[in-house]
Design goal:
It is found in: Cell envelope. The structure is a single chain. By secondary structure, this protein is mostly beta strands. 9% of the residues lie in helices and 43% in strands. The protein contains six helices and 45 strands. It has a ten-stranded mixed β-sheet. It has a six-stranded mixed β-sheet with strand order 41-40-43-44-38-45, with no helix packed on it. Strands 35, 36, 37, 39 and 42 form a five-stranded mixed β-sheet that branches. A hairpin with a 5-residue loop joins strand 21 and strand 22. The radius of gyration is 28 Å and the shape is globular. The N and C termini lie far apart (68 Å). The structure holds sulfanyl-(tricuprio-$l^{4}-sulfanyl)copper and dinuclear copper ion.
């Protein structure tokens, strides 16, 4: 009887499924839906075709996803403290977050960009900007760790950043807010004509990637919103969108929307580089942090730099021009050929495309339409390649597929519009859910896009996922662009607020991904490379514990002779030499976080015991069947105690 009931129910259920399918003709049903599912399905044990590195926005970090699956693999801490690994809490990594404002454990990261060689992604490093306390970070794509952070002086709202020239000669950082340079006490309403907008060119060492602030161009006090390098024929130039060319200092939503056209600033950086290499420019006092992490000793150092070379663009004839662009443009994108520069006026319905060839001809013919603070303004009609009349609203950002098509996001009308370079005709448009910001095509910002997918990064999620209280994670959407038309095939949540992202074929990164650090090469001054080296050393009120860890114990695991008021440094070396066997370390009452220590690595945690007692520590990462046995005790005695320092394991 029971059996019959169940099979009846199952039959009814099937009927209902089919009926609802037939009824809702608007849903992609049957064959189409399963076809889409196949396109994003990465079977257990198989791997994704692309990496996608998504900026964290206000998380300050960078997240790593696989495409097409949308699976998140890792969050890489960059500008924010990260208890999951101890980044910014460990003694070794605290210096990474040092700035001229002191320790700043957070930022707002917007635009990741992967290093390039000959205009193609080379997969060596990824750079990202700190928008709030102006900084640029370089992350290794071998270790997936932040290796370097350089602060950008004279900048504020480091937004038109961090974009890479086509041989990674420079990572470029432009200021969104113009400010007094040097900073000084002055009335805000004297902004106009007095504030400056610094565009910084940070050189990147071709061998080790080390960054150095080579020069800053002191531009008029506009807002420099976004930028992209020239490529191919326009290599040597850099383009920045500006808004607030009105130089308003209050109620910008009205006052910075007065001018019918703002500008794209075209910077011939090769010319400026030549000028500074010949002794041009002015050295100005400055104060900014340069933080470098070395794998060899697993330690970061922070150095304060005291000078910066500034360039007055009017002193370098032929180096800087303004291209009029309607109206408060946001995105500034250059197509793979390097000829087309797209400025998306976020208050205009049309996209403006400038031509690099026409720009050169207009400069050659000296056809100027006046100047702004000594910088020649070219005539709009002379540099215009075409206009995309899309009918969308609020165009923001554009990427390219390498097949002659461009894809532009429209924030207000929530859509991605596909159009043809050269003819400017709209080929396709697809809705996004909802309010899309940037979009990303793997390599879509290089000479060689890989095409295949568009990822739209949406600001508003609303009804796409199960609700999680007032806040939902932002949503990414994956479109298949391998056919003639875009096809939405997948939604996945993203972490923080991904503004921009960078995608790259997995085969360019995965084979060289680091598996362990070699213990024998560990140069950390507090490393213990054999368990016999473990010891505890008192230096006045400072105690240094040289500790090692391996499945499933710490050496030592009993420590006595610690006193209230001591500052105890645990320096812990992971003796594992196997892939994916980190151990953790957590100390009760520590005012920082745990540490997650990779095989062969040393990390240090400071603990200031405030109460007498016997206090445990343990491993936080379930590392073996005897993980729960991986623990120890510290005996803390009164400040005036004369108990000798001692340590042991298994005694
Ligand atoms: Cu448009 Cu910061 Cu690139 Cu956000 S920015 S969307
Ligand atoms: Cu080591 Cu758990």
């Amino acid at each position: 009887m029971k059996k019959i009931k169940y099979s009846m129910l199952a039959f009814l259920g099937l009927v209902m499924v089919f009926t609802s399918c037939n009824d809702s003709g608007k849903k992609s049903s049957g064959a189409l839906a399963s076809n889409n599912a196949e396109k994003v399905y990465v079977a257990p044990g198989e791997q994704d075709e692309f990496y996608a590195f998504m900026s964290g926005g206000y998380s300050g970090n960078l997240t790593v996803y696989g495409l097409p699956s949308g699976r998140m693999f890792k969050e890489i801490p960059v500008f924010s403290q990260f208890p999951t690994s101890g980044y910014g809490y460990s003694e070794e990594t605290k210096p990474m977050l040092n700035t001229s404002f002191g320790f700043v454990p957070w930022d707002d990261s917007h635009h990741p960009d992967i290093s390039q060689t000959n205009g193609e992604l080379d997969g060596r490093w990824i750079f990202i900007n700190g928008n709030n306390t102006p900084r640029i970070a370089r992350i290794s794509l071998t270790t997936f760790e932040t290796e370097e952070i350089i602060e950008v002086p004279n900048s504020a709202g480091n937004h038109s950043s961090s974009f890479i020239t086509e041989n990674t000669e420079y990572v470029v950082a432009g200021t969104r807010f113009s400010v007094p340079v040097p900073q000084r006490d002055m009335p805000i309403n004297e902004y106009k004509g007095n504030f400056k907008g610094a565009l910084s060119f940070i050189s990147v060492d071709p061998e080790d990637g080390r960054m150095d602030l080579k020069f800053q161009i002191m531009m008029p006090g506009f807002n420099y919103d976004l930028s992209h390098p020239g490529r191919g024929k326009s290599h040597g130039w850099f383009f920045f969108t500006t808004y607030n060319t009105e130089e308003a200092n209050s109620l910008l939503e009205v006052n910075a929307s007065q001018n019918d056209k703002d500008f794209i600033a075209a910077i011939n950086w090769k010319k400026i580089e030549e000028y500074v290499n010949n002794g041009g420019g002015t050295i100005m006092p400055a104060n900014y942090a340069h933080n470098v992490y070395r794998d060899e000793n697993h330690t970061a150092t922070s150095t304060m730099k005291k000078e910066v070379l500034t360039v007055d663009p009017t002193k370098v004839p032929g180096a800087v021009y303004f291209l009029p662009t309607p109206k408060s443009p946001h995105g500034c994108d250059v197509d793979p050929t390097g000829n087309y520069i797209i400025g998306n006026g976020k208050l205009s319905a049309d996209l403006t495309v400038h031509s690099f060839d026409k720009m050169l001809a207009a400069i050659e013919g000296k056809k100027f339409d006046g100047e702004a603070y000594g910088i020649p303004i070219l005539k709009f009609e002379d540099v215009l390649a075409g206009t995309v009349k899309s009918g969308g609203l609020g165009p923001l950002h554009t990427e390219f597929d390498g097949e002659g098509n461009a894809y532009t996001t429209f924030f207000i009308s929530s859509e991605v519009v596909m159009w043809k370079l050269g003819t400017w005709e709209v080929i396709d448009r697809k809705p996004t859910y909802y309010s899309v910001g940037h979009l990303m095509i793997p390599g879509g910002n290089s000479r060689k896009p890989f095409g295949k997918y568009v990822v739209a990064m949406n600001k508003i999620t609303k009804d796409r996922y199960l609700p999680t209280g007032p806040e939902l994670e932002h949503s990414a959407q994956l479109y298949d662009i391998s056919g003639d038309k875009m096809e939405l095939i997948y939604d996945f949540p993203t972490h923080g607020e991904p503004h921009y992202a960078a995608g790259i074929p997995a085969e360019l990164i995965a084979p060289k991904s680091q598996k362990i650090y070699k213990l024998a090469e560990n140069e950390h001054p507090y490393a213990v490379t054999t368990p016999d080296g473990a010891k505890v050393v008192r230096e006045g009120k400072e105690v240094h514990v040289y500790m090692s860890m391996i499945r499933s114990h710490f050496t030592p695991d009993n420590i006595e002779g610690i006193k209230v008021g001591d500052k105890v440094y645990f320096h812990i070396t992971n003796h594992e030499q196997d892939f994916d066997v980190p151990h953790g370390f957590a100390m009760i009452g520590a005012n920082n976080s745990e540490l997650l220590i990779m095989p062969g690595q040393t990390k240090s945690l400071v603990w200031e015991p405030k109460q007498e007692g016997v206090w445990p520590f343990y491993c936080t990462d379930f590392c073996s069947a005897l993980h729960q046995e991986m623990q120890g005790y510290v005996r803390v005695s009164p400040a005036n105690s004369n108990i000798d320092l001692s340590w042991s394991l298994g005694e």
